[in-house]
Every structure is written in structure tokens, then in C-alpha cells.
Amino acid sequence: MRTWLRITQSLLLVCMGGFMACLALSSSYWMFLNPKYSPLTLTTGLIIMVLGCAGLFNTQRKPGWSELLALAVFLCLAGSSSLTLSAIYKEPPQGLTGTEFDAPALSDDSEPVLTIRDQEYLKINLAELLAGESEGRTKPGGLYAFQGSVLRSPALDKAGYIGVGRLLIICCFADAIGVVYLVEVEDPDGYPSGAWVRAAGEIQQTTPTPIDDTIAIAGALATVQSENYVLQAVEVEELPQADMPYIFEVRNSAPFAF
Amino acid sequence: MDAFSIFTTAAASIVMEAAPFLLLGSLIGAVLEVFVPEEFLRRIIPRNAAGQIATGLFAGMLLPTCECGIVPVARRLMLKNVPPRTAIPYMLAAPVVNPVVIGSTLFAFQGDVGVVLLRMLMVIVPAIALGVALGDADPRHVLKQRPLDLKHYDALEEKHLHQHDHGPDCACGCGHSHGEAGHNRFTAVLFHTGAEFVSMARFLVFGALVAAGFKAFLPFELLKVFSANSWLAVSGLMLLAILLSVCSEADAFVASSFASFPMAAKIAFMGIGPMVDLKLIPMFFAVYTRRVAIALVVTPIVTVLVMSLALSMGGW
After folding, report:
1. Within 13 Å of residue A34, how many CA atoms lie on the same side as its CB?
2. Nearest beta carbon to residue A55 from set B110, B194, B208
3. What's the confidence (pLDDT) of residue B130?
4. Where is B95: in which H helix or E strand?
5. Which residues of chain A does B8 touch, with a Cβ-Cβ cutoff of 8 Å?
6. Cβ–Cβ of A32/B220 closer than 8 Å?
7. Dihedral angle over CA of B245, B249, B252, B254, nearest 10
8. In chain B, which residue ranges form alpha helices assigned H by DSSP?
């Protein structure tokens, strides 16, 4: 019995390490953790696999049932989350067997501005725009372009706004924070909820805010939105969803991680 | 994104985020166990009580460890007869009093040094309190597992096999062959690391399950109830920190996003989380005696609550 427990634990550890290593090399990693940690996850996965193999020879220690259960539970969580997340996004990534990692999707350094009718709009992500408010960078009259998912509500529709939001991931999905900006548009009904859009326009001061409640984003612990400014849209264009819709990087200066 | 998907993804991500640090803590513990002689630790740790506590408080600046991996390191230190009044303050303070977390807190709060200092105070005060309370406590009275002097390992092996509790969380790796010293020690490190990792990983996984459950199924609107007054705000965010078990590198950004809460409540969130959460509580009860484990949970909660309420009354 002891031998079977030891073999089972070793197998589970090897599977756990193998999953982490494969995930770190796959195009799905960003769904769980900030991509900057992929080398760490890869290294950890490989070491766990080594420990799993070494454990086969540790004949003096009897693995506990709770230890085996925990490893099995993790593998079930990992497997089910990989399957369910792949179904959520309109253009699912290659999955665990894919090796393409679209690092350039994190920022678009080659085009730091968007030009619309000879006017330049600084490309920025929502977290950077909100951070800019507290640092005094974001001011009324500023011309910006950002992207995100459309958020709708009856109160917003009535006020003539849509919300554009994204999840900001510092370390992992569990600490995701929602970041939202209100965008003034002519016809909110023209933008389906959940659609991926790029909004460009001018920052306007608004007091009081168009709606009382903070908009919630699924998966976010809390949501941050501007209490003083909105974007008066010049153009809101529906686009294919970004390869990595989450925000992983917040820069203090241009070029921003659009 | 539906609630089940959020739940499974959050739980898996918590485990994978914490796993490297748990592995590092297990490895450090194993290296301490096998390679670092007790005499060396006795030489570098001050003899007086104040020095021992101070060493524990600021050792995290040299050996930063996430709270996920700190318990095995603290345990190994005490198994080497490092005084509990050094190891316990280190365990409580190191996840916050280290360059990485100080940097992330500064960034999340736009360079506000006051917030950083208050956060450090939130962990230093209970760490000192427990360090003083432990006095000259013997590690044998603090830990469930008895320390083993590896210098006399060969001679004591037979006796150790009988007097030692070889429960599921035993990570002693005893019983390895009496072969050539270098080979034994390398193998011992591997066995120790693996055993410690799987032993602690079960608390990580089950804690992650509960934390992810709260994240996925807790109504967002419930937070508004807690922002009603300072008492509710502080205690509410402290409870949230314990339930969500966010890592100490990211919790500053999470805290800063609670815009409707007073600063005192946000500091309480950042102070209590690295010391007490759903991953750490079962680890404490597995590693320490019942009295010490209860003290490790209650003391930080009470001190952080009192200090945060005082801050709140002071206008923070």
C-alpha cells in the first residue's frame, strides 16, 4: 500500500509540474498569471517534476491521503479552468499544446498614437489613464485612445454613456482589479455589451458623475473608475478581441502599454 | 465569464502563483536542515532578547520570502534551535518587511511613504508582541515536531525512528542510507524539499479553494455595506483580506482599488493579509502547538484591528 501511495504521489507531482511547465510555454498562460512570471512557473514546474521522480525513492516516508487529494484537486482545477476559459473568448488561443506567445500584444510600441482626421490620440491603457489622474498627467482636453469591453446598464444608457472596461492583473487572476472609463456616445444601443472596442476622444471633466454606482466586472475583486473625468468619444470602433484582453503592465510615461 | 470559470481559474492561479515561493521555502528549509550547522546559527544570532527579536524582524530584508513559503523556513529554523523569538517575528514580518513588497506598496499608493511605514508597523507590532511573549521558550514547546541534532544523526537514527512522529506532515527524510556523506546530503535535500512541499501544498490548495470561492460567489455589492463607518470598514476589509488570501506583493494594488474605504481600512487589509489568511491558518495548526497557533492567529488580528481603529480616529 505504501508503495502504491508513493507511486501515486510521484505521478501526481509529475503531472502538476508538467502542467505548470506546459502552461508556461503555451499561449494560455496569461489567463492565469501575469506573463512576466512565465519563466518562474516553468522553472517551478520542472523542479516539481524532479521532486516527483525523486519521491519514488523516498521509501521511508508514507504519503498522506490529504496530500494526494490536494494534488488531485489542483489537477482537476487546472484542467477544468483550461477547458472553460478556452470557450469564453471569441478567438480561443492554441491551448496548452500551443507554443506561440504573442508578447507584442502587451504593447504597441510601433504606433504610440492613433490618427483620426489629422488629430493624434495618445494610445494608453485604462489603468495608465486612471493612474495618470492621481499623478496629474490626465487632464481635461487630453486626447486619448484606449480599448476594452463594452459595459452597459440602464442607468448608463439613460445618461448616454457606455463603460469600457478591462481586468488589471498584477500577479495572478485571483487579484484581478477592474478598470473602467465612462465614454459619452450618441447611441449606447449601437454597442453590444461585451463587444471589444477601441475608443478615441477627449477627456472631459464631469461633476457630478453620470451614474452613482461603480460598474462591476466579472472576475474583479473591485472596480476602479474615474470619479472626475469621462471620455467624449470621437470614434468608438468595434474590433476583434485583443490576444490578451487583460492589462498586465502600467507605465508612467509614453509609449504606454495600450 | 461565469462564476464556475472564475472559481476554477482563481483557485488554480493562486496555487500556481504561490507554488514557486512554497517550493523556495521548502528548499531553504531543506538546505537549513542538511547543510547549516546549529553552531553557525547560534553564532550569528544575538544573545540578548532585543537583538534576537530585531534579527527576526529585519531578516526579511536579506531573505525575502512570501507568506506562502515562510512557515517551512521558520519551522526549520526552530528545528535548528533558533530561538522562537527570532523565528516567529521573522515569519510574521518577512512577507512585508522586504524590498519587493515595500516597492510594490510604494507603487500602488503613488509613492506615499507614510502608507508603507504604517503597513510595516502593522506587522512589526504583533511580531514584537509575540517575540516578547515567547520569552525563552524552547522550540520543543512551540513546535509539534521535536528538533533533531543532525551532528549525531547516525548514532541517534535508531532512537529517532522510535521517538519521532512520522505523521503525514513529517518531513525529516529519516532512514536514508549510510552512504557517502555528499550523496546522502544531496538526496536528503531532495527528499526534505519534496516532503515539505507536498505537506504544505495541501494547505495551499484547500486555502485557495476557499479564497477562490469567496472571490467567485461573494456579491460585489456586499462590500458597500462595510464602507458605511470606520469600524465596519476596518473589520470588513480585515475579514476580506483573510478570506481572499491575496499575496503580499499584489495586495497593495487590491487595497488601493477600494476607493470608497478609508485609508486606515486599506492599511489594515495590507497588514493582516500576510500574517493571517486561509492558507496560513491550517499551516499554523499543523506545525505549531495549539496554544502557539491560536496566538499566531489572534494576536495579529487584535493588534491590527486596534491600531487601524486608532488610525481611523486620527483621521486616516
Report:
1. 19
2. B194
3. 94
4. none
5. 77, 80-81, 84
6. no
7. -50
8. 3-35, 38-44, 49-58, 67-79, 84-93, 99-108, 113-134, 139-142, 153-163, 181-217, 222-226, 230-244, 251-256, 263-272, 280-287, 290-313
First to last CA, chain A: 56
How many Cα atoms sit within 13 Å of A111 on the Cβ side? 9
Q: B170: distance to nearest CA of chain A, Å? A: 8
CA distance A120 to A143: 7
A192: preceding bond cis by omega (within 30 degrees): no
C-alpha to C-alpha distance for A168 and B289, rounded to whole angstroms:
40
DSSP, collapsed to helix, strand or coil, labels residue B195 as: helix
Q: How many CB pairs under 8 A join A and B?
A: 179
Residue B25 Cα, gap to closest chain A Cα (Å) = 12
pLDDT tier at A237, thresholds 50, 70, 90: very high
Unique residue bearing C-alpha cell 506583493 = B249
C-alpha cell at B171: 518531513
**Nearest by CB: A58 against B169, B194, B257:** B194
**B246–A227: do the CB atoms touch at under 8 Å?**
no
CA distance B127 to B130: 5
The C-alpha torsion from A191 through A226 and B211 to B238, rounded to 10°, is: -160
Give dist(CA A176, CA A218) in Å, integer. Answer: 10
- Residue-wise pLDDT tens digits, A115-162: 888 889 999 999 999 888 877 888 889 999 999 999 998 888 988 999
Q: Which residue of A has its CA nearest to B166?
A: A61
Closest partner residue to B15 among A74, A135, A168, by Cβ?
Answer: A74
In this predicted structure, the answer to whether residue B164 has a pLDDT above a threshold of 50 is: no
Measured CA to CA, the distance from residue B247 to residue B234 in angstroms comes to 19
pLDDT of residue A103 exceeding 50, the answer is: no
Residue among B81, B201, B94 nearest B149 (CA): B81
Q: Cβ contacts of residue A84 below 8 Å, gap of 6+?
A: B2, B4, B5, B8, B9
- Residue A119 is classified by DSSP as E
Of chain A, the percentage scoring pLDDT greater than 90 comes to: 47
Given a cut of 90, whether residue B292 has pLDDT beyond it is yes
8 Å CB contact of A77 and B12: yes
Q: Looking up cell 507614510, which residue turns up?
A: B114
Taking CB atoms and an 8 Å cutoff, what residues of chain B touch A173? 9-10, 13
Strand A161-168 and strand A143-151: pairing?
antiparallel
Per-residue model confidence as pLDDT tens digits over B167-193 = 444 444 443 333 334 458 888 899 989
Q: Does A20 touch chain B (CB under 8 A)?
A: yes
